[in-house]
Amino acid sequence: MSSDLHNTSKNSFYSNVMRMSEYYNLPDFDPTFLTDAKIKYYVSLMQQKYISHWQHTIRNSKKLEFYNTFKDEYTPSCYLDLTRKLNNRKELLKLSDR
Fold it and tell me: Would the pTM count as exceeding 0.70?
């Protein structure tokens, strides 16, 4: 059904997946023949491309220059594992900055 919507130029989950594969330039991407190994491979490629983009952005931005002195590697902050609630995360961040 989702691919049918996509084929009629209507937005669907399938359309989003196809756009994402084009954006990340995933080689030999065919959503009908995905295996666990291929999914892991595509996820790895997407992570690598995102991290490269993040590193380029942080190194070439005047606004992020100060941020880069404290965090120059792409790793999740440890407080993110403590809670999923956005308000709690904001408060934990405030505490970690003191």
Answer: no
